[in-house]
What we know:
Layout: E1 3-7, E2 21-23, E3 45-46, E4 49-50, H1 51-59, E5 64-67, E6 91-93, E7 99-101, H2 107-117, E8 120-124, H3 132-143, H4 149-156, E9 167-170, H5 183-195, E10 206-213, H6 217-227, E11 240-248, E12 250-251, E13 257-258, H7 266-293, E14 300-309, H8 327-342, E15 347-353, E16 363-366, E17 369-372, H9 374-382, E18 389-391, E19 393-396, E20 399-402, E21 405-408, E22 410-416, E23 422-428, E24 435-442, E25 449-455, E26 474-476, E27 479-482, E28 485-490, E29 494-500
Helix pairs in contact: 3-4, 5-6, 6-7, 7-8, 8-9
The structure holds alpha-L-arabinofuranose.
Alpha-L-arabinofuranose binds at residues 25, 69-71, 172-173, 305, 353-354, 359.
Amino acid sequence: MNEITLDVKSAATKIDPNIYGHFSEHLGRCIYEGYWVGEDAPIPNVRGIRTDVVEALRKIKAPVMRWPGGCFADEYHWRDGIGPHEQRPSMINTHWGGVVENNHFGTHEFMDLCDQLGCEPYFCGNVGSGTVQEMSQWIEYLTFGGKSPLADLRRQNGREAPWRLKYFGVGNEKWGCGGRMTAEYYSDEYRRYSVYTRNYGDNELYRIACGARNDDYHWTEVMMAKAGNDQLLAGPYMDGLAVHYYTQIKRLTDGTRVGSATQFSEAEWIEIIAKGLFMDELVRKHGAIMDKYDPAKKVAMIVDEWGTWYAVEPGTHPRFLYQQNSMRDALVAATSLDIFNKYCDRVRMANIAQTINVLQAMILTQNEQMILTPSYHVFDLYKVHQDATLTPSEVQSERYALGDYDVPALSASASVDGDGKLHLTLSNANPHKDIPVRVFVNGFKAARVQGQVLQGDSMNAHNTFTMPHVVEPKGFHGAQISGEALEVLMPKMAVVALEIT
Ligand code: AHR
């Protein structure tokens, strides 16, 4: 009964590399200590940005980075983050612990980071406490090549040529920290702000509207109906509509998170797996509303915040959202990426929250030390899908059930890359049982299979600063070609990536 059928002949839709995107906010130790250590730090850096972190993110081909928030974006005033460091004013990061932000990491440093990573910058502008003028001037500062007071200011700050900037978000979580707006109100605000996000020269912005929280389908309906593209103005003025969804145990009535990232029962394991899989329903239902207004799928769905969210690690600042990362998170990463791949005709970007030291991080740092999380390794295994063509797949799986939850044990997605190699990524959420799987590949003559596996010896297996290599990909020898099928023995609570040629 555990069968996967891959229809290589029907492969048609490209998997946008940006589905493997990242989100980094001025929150806790993500920017400071995570990326930015300053030029004089003993930690190896290039112009203040950690070299080890850049190398690690280049390895997984981080394609796009959303910045500066999050909730921080709607309190951020970009002019505070330009010019000589010692002259930049400080501000209070009111949303994330009331700590003082010295603005040493600003526009130029972020663009330098993106250059070092070789990724696309994705700016999120301030609608909540900013103005149309402030937002429009940021874009002029960044992208105008001619002579203007703002372009000259950029030159004075050391950058002669305008930057190329594509992705621009018009505010964050407008229904919450971004101003507690209704969809009806924000859709008008979006129209107004987006008009003044100008294209200078041949720089073309890709404008992303703030989208729904979880299953607020009304938000998507209103945005598509009122702020979607119409004939009033030339050119598209909404290229993408966002949606945010976090996988979490529950919250107390005062908003406090419960549930540890590493000390959890099997009941919490399956709860998180099941809640992670809810992403499928969300993408499908938001997508169906978008289809109604935009059957040609011109407006992309941008899942620009997703990931697991637990109680913070004991002893750490409650607003710094620092959590460990285990095999359970690896499973959520794998199943979520399978879902984004599956709906890649509509989902064209997704940004995991957040890259370093915050929530479902790829990387954790402690002074000069850096460790890679199980979620990082999933992004590494899955990077083969970036820019490959989705292979439609049908997955028949036995169930894995406990208490209130009952989920398919197996998840998978497949693609064919530019060299004609077929990539199949699979996961098995059952923590007790290896599962034999038959894979039928239609329209592809499979001669050879090789793979890698990410598996822990327990549900909460994770890497620490003293034991950084507990969970790492290893060679996988549980797949072989047998007649017309591929036989795979999917290990329990594991993620496998196969290359079939
Ligand atoms: O990622 C942490 C926060 O979660 C972001 O700042 C906000 O957009 C969301 O609520």
